[in-house]
Amino acid sequence: xxxxxxxxxxxxxxxxxxxxxxAPVAEYSALQVKRPSFDSTSIPAFQFxxxxxxLHHQYESWRKSFSSILEFGERRDGSGGFEGNQxxxxxxxxxxxxxxxxxxxxxxxxxxxxxxxxxxxxxxLPLDGAISTVGPAGSFHGGAGIIQVHSLGRWFxxxxxxxxxxxxxxxxxxxxxxxxxxxxxxxxxxxxxxxRLLSDYFIGLAKRLPIIDAENLPELVGATxxxxxxxxxxxxxxxxxxxxxxxxxxxEKARRIVHAKLCDPTFNAKVLRRELAIxxxxxxxxxxxxxxxxxxxxxxxxxxxxxxxxxxxRPTPYC
Length: 319
Prior knowledge:
The chain is 39% helix and 21% strand.
């Protein structure tokens, strides 16, 4: 879900699309669209937050800002306000968004089903909450951690609970090879091993985008395309092409697991390998620059203890 105009993403700037979509609530348009104070080397990003508006206008402004791509259900009482905020990064032919929204009902815009040029896909990853969708072939439900595929050019409707999510917009002409696979995957949840790697990639992308330089954008878009291809077309060639971003995703996941298990005396390389579902040689190569898995674990335990000793107001951690 994003506040785009009816212009194809590959043919118009995100700045124009988002500003135009927010225009229907003219008296608050200056508050709805805010460019973060990044320097000129950063990837362009835009923000929209309903908390800048009076309570009784919050839901309607959120609803109108999405009106070019989605219809939201009516709310009888808007006096209690509505939490909706998002940051959108302009990746050129792609767009990536982080969204927090209160519960609502949604549906496709009827006019879109008659204009195939608007048939972009959205790859949505709920970080919490759940999304239920009824589409042309039936219904599906997805919760936290599993990517869902929707098509903005086809009919659908559904509900969202209070949720935070990440969303990637992919135009139909972005990659001809994966267009058929995305078409076949639309209105479904990608609950596969590669789908979960793509979920981890999205989470890492959300962390990196605020600090990455714009000069690295081509490499980032290429890595994102390779990850999507490996997910929807998991051939040996596509998975090989995605090896670099997959390796980064696995290393970040490994680090999270290690830090979560630092105080577990039974934690070892075998446990980590099982959690990552990779081979022994793959795990060795991953941690070779750190002197091996257990060397990395022992160093992290030492660093945690050192930090605890340096904070006399807190008890020293067990490990």
